[in-house]
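ARCHIVE CARD
Drawer: 12
Card no.: 0347
Subject: one protein chain, sequence and derived structure
Cross-reference: see card 0346
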Amino acid sequence: MKTLDPGLAQHLAGSATTLATCWKATRGDGVVLGFTDHDEDLVFEGVTYLADSGPEASEVSTGPGLAVGGSEISGALNDLVLSNALLSEADLSAGLWDRARIEVWRVNWAAPEERVLTQVAEIGEVTRADGAFRAELRSLAQGLEEVRGRVFSHVCDADLGDARCGVDLEAGGLRGSGVVSAVTGERRILVAGIDGFEEDFFARGLLRWATGANAGRAMEVASHGTQVAGAVLDLWLAPSAPIAIGDAFTVTAGCDKRAVTCRAKFANIENFRGFPHMPGNDFALSYPTRDTGVNDGGKLVD
């Protein structure tokens, strides 16, 4: 049960109301944006909620117990400016809105100090088409459905370079720098500067752009090949902005999380976080058998 501000409670009990919905969005990079369906900007708690910003909300669905509820917001993609931040298709494509925290407020626009927080959610799936977007709002109960803790697996469950792994990615030979010399596809680039590394050294590694339209953004490398003209990198996903010749980047070594790679490539087997000798499903489901044949001596043959 929510406790209403006395002024808001009195307002709701009246014969007419002046209510608006406000959405406060906090992205993973710390940028805060505010939107409202009112026809004028509203300001409270240091956040300006922009009017005419387009979002519309659906009904909120909830289930019994800890079932995950949710709703949707939709609107037009335009250049909404707040603290030099934009709600744009480029930001959505870059993943800046992934799992952004959303607070939904019901506000008396005539007296914004009279308000109530009705929902806290996270951005889920976002779809874009014809200059518009539709974003799923998932309740915080979704966290209860996520896998937590470690699992038994043949492969390592640490991330290369983290505290559990212990590999120093700043050490010599594990990081390279280069520039794009040719763009041969949406996700494939020919690069110069990392020719001294063997093929697939950077496969599954992390590439971070230093210059260009994608500066500051990082993405995973799917494969790393070599050619006479230079090294070829395939990215797992296409970047949100086009890659251009001359774009500079740094890239770190990749790891396939196998014990043999941990030993041979990184000399780090003592920190391997997998279980390479764990029996597989075939072994676990097998059972003892015995040959019932009889040899010349009249004994059973195992």
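Annotation on reverse: The two ends are 71 Å apart (CA to CA). The longest strand covers residues 115-129.
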